[in-house]
Amino acid sequence: MKNKILRLIPLIALVLGLSACDDHNYGGEDVAEGSISFASFGVDVQEGQTVVESRTGIDVSGYLVKIVNTATGRVVMQSAYGQLPGVISLPVSDYKIKVESHEVQPAEFDRPYYAGETAVKVSANSISDAGKVTCRFSSIRVSIRYADNLRPLLGDDVTVTVNTRGTGELVFTPTDSRSGYFEAVEGSTTLVAIFRGTVNGQLTELRKELTDIKAGDHRIITFKIKLPDDFPDAGGTIDPSTGVTIDSSVENVDRNGNVTFEEDNLGGDDRPGQEGPEGPENPDNPNIPDKPDSDVSMTAPELVFDEQMDCSPKNGIVNIHADSGIAHLYIKVDTDNDDFRDIALQMFGEGKFDFADPNMSEESKAQLEPLGLSYGDAILNQTDVPFDISMFIPLLSGFRGTTTFSLTVVSNNGAELSKSLIFKAE
Known about the structure:
By secondary structure, the protein is mainly beta. 10% of the residues lie in helices and 41% in strands.
C-alpha cells in the first residue's frame, strides 16, 4: 500500500502545484514571451438585438475575465474586470479572452448568464491589444404561466418542476413570477417540465419535454384549461368529469427577438384526476410506463454503498449500467481533510464533475488519465461501464479523516440513481 501511495506522490505534487504557482509566473525563463495590453479593453453586453456599452449602461466590474490557452484549454489567468492589470506577460501562443457575468450554475432563479470571447495571439517581444468582448445572453430562460381559466382551480400543492435530466432543477409555484435560468450544455438540448398537484380537487401529474433548446432561448410554458367544443355553459362551474383537459402552449423567444409558438397537448388522457399512479399497477391508465428508476443500477463487489468503510478494499470498481445508455456520470467529493480537499478541487472543481462530458477540457483529461479513470466516449451512451476508483483508495489512507465520493448516473431516458462511497482514514 505504501508503494502505491509513493507512486501517486508525483500526481499529488502536480495537482497541488497548479494552485501554488504565482499568478504572474506563466512560463519558464527560457520560454519566449510577449504581452497582452488591457489598456483599451472593453466589455459590452448585448441585450437582445441591442448592444449596451459597459461604460454607460451595465456595471461589468464584477464580470470574470479569463485568459485561456487555445491549445491546452488551460486557464492561465482569471480576474474580475474591475481589477485587470494594465499588461500581462505570457508565453508565445494563441489565447482566448473569455468574459462571463459569473460562474455559470446548472440552474438558478433570476440570474441570467452572459458570456463572450475573443481571440488574441501573443508573439515574442511584442504587445497585443486585448480588444473588446461582447457578452450575449448564454443560458436558457424558462418562465411558467397559468391561464386565467386554470388559475382558480389550482390547489396549494401545485408545483412545476423543470430539470435538465441531472444537471440542474428548479421548482416553480403558482405564485412565482421569477424566471429560471439553466446552463446550456452542448449536446444536451432537452428540458423536462413536470406539473404536479391538485386541479379542482383532483390529483394531476403531467409531463412536458422541451426539445431543440440552445443558449439564448426563452421558453414560456403556459398551462390552461381546454374545454371540448360541446362543453355546456354551466355558469362558470367546471367539472373535470365532463371532458376538461389541461393543455400547454410553448412560446420560444430567442436572443435575436425571433418568436415561435407551439401548441402542444401534454399527451395521453390528461383529464385532471384521470392519471392515477404510474405503471402497470394502474389498469385504468395502462399507457403510462413504469418510472424509469430500474433503467440504471450501480454495483460494487468489494465496496459498500452509503456506509462508512476503511481504506482496505483493493478493488474499487463500481459497475454502472443503464439500459438506454449513460447521459451523465457525476462525481462530487466531500472531505474533512483540508489537504485532500485542495487536491479534489483541482481535479474536479466545486460541485459535480461529469465524466461523460463530451466537451471535457484537455487539462481535465490529462489529470484523469494517470488515475486510469474512464471519461468521455468511454462512458457517454454506454450501457455498461466499470468505473474504477481503486487508485484513490490507498491514496486516501494518507489523509486522515472522512471522504465521501457521491456518484450519480443519469440515463438517456432521464432515469437517475445516486450512491455514496464513504471512506474513513484513521
